[in-house]
Write a structure and sequence with these properties.
four-stranded antiparallel sheet, 124 residues, seven-stranded mixed sheet, 48% strand, globular, mainly beta
Length: 124
Amino acid sequence: VQLQASGGGLVQPGGSLRLSCAASGRTFSPYQLGWFRQAPGKEREFVACITRTGRTFYLGSVKDRFTISRDNANYTVNLQMNNLRPEDTAVYSCAATAKAYSGDYYIPGWYDYWGQGTQVTVSS
C-alpha cells in the first residue's frame, strides 16, 4: 500500500487542522493505521492508532483534543486536531501495517508502510 498525507499548515494556538492520509492499493480495511510526528531534534513519537476493527489509541497529551478516524470505502485515515498547542508542532506522518493487532501499535517499527510527512506548525 502507498500512503499520501496532506492537510498540514500553519495555525494559531487553539486552532484546528484536519490531516488526511490517502492509501492506494488493492485493499485497505485489513490495515492497522497510525499517525506519528517528529519535531526537530526529537525522536519520532506515536500520536494515534486506529485498528482494523475501529479501536483507537492516543498519546496521552493529545487525547480529548485529537480524533483519528478511517473511511474504508475511500481508503483514507484522518486525524482531526483541535485546540492545537505550540508543542504539537512537528512533521506528521501516517503509517500502516497488515499485522494482527498487538500492543506494539505505538512503536514505529511495527508499521510496514509510511507516507511522506506533512508539516504542522502551531504559532501565533
